[in-house]
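Exercise 7 asks you to align residues with tokens for two separate proteins.
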Amino acid sequence: MEKHRIGTMDISVQEKTFAGFIAWVKWTTVAIIVSLVALALING
């Protein structure tokens, strides 16, 4: 078995997954804030 060397693994799939997760968190946070502002404006 070949000895493990740091920095040689292809992590492109993990990077795409992480980028998608960050985008999902960003847009979910925006949706929650917009919803809370709308509720505050509607309820006066």
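Second protein for Exercise 7:
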Amino acid sequence: MQGLLQGAMNFGCAIMSLPNGRIVEVYGGKRMLGVMLACASVMSLLSPVAARMSIWVLIGLRVLQGVCLVGVLPALNTVIVAWFPPEERAKFFAIILTGLNVGTVTSMVLAGWLCELEWLGGWPAPFYVVGAAGLLWSVLWHALIYQTPEKGKFPWAKFLRSPLVWVQTATCMGDVFSLYIILTMVPTYLTNIQHFDLRNAGIVAALPYLLSCPVSVCWGLLVGYLTVSRVLTKRRIKQLSTVVGFYVPTLCMVGICLAGCSKDVVVVLLILSVCANSCNFAGIFTTYQDLSPTFCATFMGFTGMFSSITGMVGPVVTGLMINDSQTLGAWRNVFITSAVIYFASCTLYLAVTPMRQQQWDSPTPPTPCPRPCMFPSPDPAPVRKSQEC
């Protein structure tokens, strides 16, 4: 039942990832991002009530949260395409997505602290605090961010026949599969195998995400500099980010298998794995904008649909491998599986490295100024058509 509850949100993500991507493009990234976060925040506030009613009510609420939250990244994609020029998107996308890790660390640490207090009943307090913060953020988002909705007819037939779409989808599925194993199952591994107490296990599990925040920002600034100064091409930067984001975690997973019960080595490798994986923000996550700046939200929703399925499968496969036998050998199988999937996904991506805007992505919205234009250029004079052929 615990595994079902943990995977419930991914089920909601899987069924609505693609529709949400298209909805975002039709109604606008700014508008839908705020609405989705507000709805998910309300469901967070209702979670303690649902838990007291029935476990199935809580599972249903988690599914609905997944339905809302899966559209956030596609919506963010459209906002970035609208406001940043192509040469700056990788830098700012990496910096902005650092907020994912900041939120993960903050919620992990805050939840443990709030649960120990009697304020708001103890364990319900994290749901109330996070929900209230999300509602406040949604209000500020709607009040301060300028809306630029994008509309257009989506070329489904050409999209589904594009090999690069499926390469990107397979790569993201591999990344999410291994990443969710680390995110959801590592606290159990630290508690049962490395013998951390429950509180310290939560802190150690959150530590990699905390340290990955400055890594992600610095990496974004670095690739931005390399792009502007033309030290490396955009293709090389994307390949470098993907190599660091996939192959380094692959080596870390193998290292954890070899480390055995050496706590310090295992913790260092977990930190290195998550920090390196954050470099993907400037790698595979920018592919949507390169291949399809017009329909990047639908594209990301499409890959997110399949990735959410692997996010559900990852913890289930881990449970089958362990099979209630919390042994070092069983967990080695889990980490080796993650390493193989990381390696295969990265190798597939590097063999192709999708870069060019696809022919089916048309028309392309104009790239706005990265900052307000005080003196816009006048409209060009009309060109007279020649009478001759």
